[in-house]
Amino acid sequence: MKKTKNIGWVIIIEGFAGSGKSSIAKKILNPINKKIGNTILLDGDYVRNFFKSLKISFGYTKKERSRSAIPTAELIKLFSQNNINIIYPCVGYNKFATKLWYKSFKNLVYIQIRSDIKKIIKFGKKKMYKNTKKNITGLDIKPFFNKKADIILRNDFDQPISKISNSIIKKILKII
Questions:
Q1: pLDDT exceeds cutoff 70 at 126
Q2: What is the mean pLDDT of the chain?
Q3: Ranges of each domain in the chain
């Protein structure tokens, strides 16, 4: 992909809750910042809390997840258009959001972290799987898997996050 000048890169890291996407995002932030310049991490939870502080809140139903993609894309675009690179880990797996990301961002690297949701639950990666039984992507909300993602990696929790992160960094640098 050829970079559009003066527009930052948007690196979307998509995966189930507990798949390691935020941990990976934190590990790749500094190396990516050193290689391509001014890069920030906008975690999906931070973005949700930001909108909540503005009295704009979104629920977790499939429809509400789709609706939240629009202001999130605008926020990310604000940074990107000012030549700031963004790493955005989010649950995603939403067809509407996926189409919106491709339409909204000129310099996009789309990453999917594929994990077996049963393993995530078994390893107790997220308490939400025990406490909440509805509106969870991968359980009662059918995930949309983007077959055009630039990078698709499995995290079966059998290798360290640092190894997965190093692999992702190498693949990102080949793309950008």
A1: no
A2: 90
A3: 10-175
b/e map 73-111, b = 16+ CB within 10 Å: bebbbebbeeebbbbbbbbbbbeebbebbeebbbbbbbb
Residues forming beta bridges with residue 41, ordered by sequence position: 87
CATH 3.40.50.300 fits 10-175, yes or no: yes
Concatenate the DSSP letters of all residues of 32-75 into one string.
HHHHHS-EEE--HHHHHHHHHHTT----SSHHHHHHHHHHHHHH
CA 131 to chain CA mean position, Å: 23
Q: Which residues contact 11 (CB under 8 A, 6 or more apart)?
A: 28, 32, 85, 86, 87, 88, 108, 109, 111, 172
Query: What one-letter code names the amino acid at 49?
Result: N
Q: Hey, CA dihedral for 168, 101, 6, 38, is it positive or negative?
A: negative
pLDDT at 14 over 90: yes
70 φ, ψ (degrees, to nearest 5): -65, -55
How confident is residue 92, by pLDDT bands cut at 50, 70 and 90? confident
Look at 61 and 125; give whichever has higher pLDDT: 61
In the chain, % of residues over pLDDT 90 = 62
